[in-house]
Design a protein that fits this description.
The chain is 39% helix and 17% strand. By secondary structure, the chain is of the alpha+beta class. It contains 18 helices and 14 strands. Helix 5 packs across helix 6 and helix 15 packs parallel to helix 17.
């Protein structure tokens, strides 16, 4: 076969220089028949042959019409439709035909729209896996807000994606950046858009309250148009890989402190993607001057919901239980919760305040609530021994369950634990329970042995048991503690003061 370069040279020498065929053959070192073939070959020769009919040929018009109506229809579904119409062939042959018959999808082209300073910001949630807190796991999410002009970023990490966390992320980001953009762009998430029918959009009322407070206009993306908020999508990926990956942290406060340092020293110090001669921090300083001013008071993001307890004085909220006064059992109250505190209101009056727990299955109690209940229930049965032990050492709850499973939950063991609680105190008993569990010997005898060992190591005197008569008036007697130095005056060996 004559190479294309040689054929072109032969044709040039023959038609342009008018060389004879023999001279061309001698000069190029080829056969004269090769020169003649190159001169007379005006078109590319194709290999002869004929196409054989296939079992798919009668069905090709149907396949072509169906793909024209449903361009993304899968070949497997087409194969099922053809089998119902008598097609005996395999799906492999059909896939080869569909590859050529499927209409090519039109590639979308996007305009490059310039962003004015302070005009828009983009908002979205990012998922950062799960973290373990106490006895349960919670999802770790990141609320991310990015200014469209400067690419300045702020993130707030939360343990949920509730509406209250969504609003709190806005407030922290706006106040940290020192201003708000005039338009905030969202995906069609439920925290922002409750319903959408074409161009008719039903925003969440709380989001509209937030927008009215900070004077911005909310704008959702069009459905299936994620490129409309591409800046925040890229920033979430940047945050996930450049900051969060393989980063240890103690808790959310530590994670936020590390993010603030990384944002100021890394993220905002990188080159701006459009203004390459400036950093993000420099462009952000320019944009910050035209942001909408921050109001004097931040928007209130506290969760407010009606609540009612059962027959016990506890409200269940976010996997945990919080105590309230026993006088409000089965009565309607108002629960208020923010990121750190849970409050309970009876009308306008606050009746309980607890530190919020993100653990699972924890009972958060106020000692005053339990004391008031015991005092009001003087004729009711007293707190059982197990309840007293659970309140003093919560780790004993798991121990009681294990004893019950193995049939070891005897009264003698509970009484011995009560004696140990009275003799050594709750802190020492809790440490001994944890050590006994670590040694896989969770019995009252082992716990007593560990407490005795600790007493000897510290050189303390043996504990003298206090035996009281089995009389209700004596058993329920409470003696207030007072200073023991007053007993020194009764000792005959006490040195007298010099006269």
């Amino acid at each position: 076969m004559v190479p294309p370069e040689q054929r072109a040279e032969i044709r040039r020498l023959f038609y342009a220089e008018h060389w004879p065929v023999g001279t061309i053959a001698a000069q190029l070192g080829v056969h004269h028949a090769t020169v003649t073939a190159a001169i007379n070959r005006d078109t590319v020769l194709t290999r002869g042959g004929r196409c054989r009919a296939t079992t798919l040929d009668p069905y090709l018009p149907f396949v072509r019409d169906t793909l024209a109506q449903y361009p993304r229809l899968r070949a497997t579904r087409l194969h099922e439709m053809l089998r119902l119409r008598g097609y005996p062939g395999s799906a492999v042959q059909l896939r080869r035909a569909v590859r050529h018959l499927r209409p090519a999808s039109a590639q979308a082209a996007y305009l490059r729209l310039p962003t004015l300073p302070g005009e828009t910001a983009q908002v979205d949630w990012g998922s950062f896996g799960r973290i373990r807190i106490g006895r349960g796991e919670r999802p770790l999410s990141g609320f991310v807000l990015v200014l469209g002009y400067s690419r300045a970023i702020h993130a707030v990490f939360t343990l949920d994606q509730t509406l209250e966390s969504f609003l709190r992320g806005h407030v922290e980001a706006i106040h940290t950046m020192g201003g708000c953009a005039r338009t905030l762009v969202y995906d069609n998430l439920k925290s922002a858009v409750l319903d959408r029918q074409g161009s008719a959009i039903h925003f969440h009322p709380r989001l509209l309250e937030l927008a009215g407070h900070y004077h911005f206009a909310p704008r959702p993306c069009a459905p299936a148009r994620a490129h409309e908020k591409g800046k925040v999508e890229r920033q979430i990926q940047y945050l996930r890989h450049a900051f969060f990956a393989a980063r240890p942290f103690r808790d959310l406060d530590d994670l936020h402190a590390q993010f603030a340092h990384w944002r100021d020293t890394v993220a905002h110090q990188r080159r701006h993607p459009e203004q390459r001669d400036q950093t993000v921090a420099a462009v952000f300083a320019e944009e910050q001057r035209v942001l909408l001013p921050v109001p004097a008071h931040p928007f209130e993001t506290t969760l407010v919901r009606p609540a009612r307890s059962g027959k016990q004085p506890y409200l269940t909220f976010d996997r945990n239980q919080y105590s309230l006064p026993h006088t409000l059992v089965r009565r309607p109250v108002t629960l208020l919760a923010d990121a750190t505190t849970v409050r309970i209101l009876d009308g306008p009056t606050e009746v309980a305040r607890h530190a919020r727990s993100y653990d699972t299955g924890i009972v958060i109690e106020d000692a005053a609530h339990l004391a008031a209940l015991v005092e009001a229930k003087a004729t009711a049965r007293p707190i059982t021994a197990r309840e007293r032990l659970r309140q003093a050492v919560p780790a004993l709850d798991a121990l009681f369950t294990q004893w019950a499973t193995h049939g070891d939950a005897g009264v003698a063991q509970v009484r011995r634990l009560l004696d140990l609680l009275d003799d050594y105190g709750a802190a020492a008993l809790a440490a001994a329970v944890d050590e006994a569990a670590a040694r896989e010997a969770p019995s009252a005898a082992t716990i007593a042995y560990l407490l005795e060992q600790q007493r000897r190591k510290r050189g303390l005197k043996p504990v003298v048991p206090l035996v009281l008569p089995n009389h209700p008036g004596v058993q329920d007697l409470e003696v207030p503690a007072h200073a023991l130095e007053s007993y020194d005056a009764l000792s005959p060996d006490r040195p007298r003061d010099p006269e």
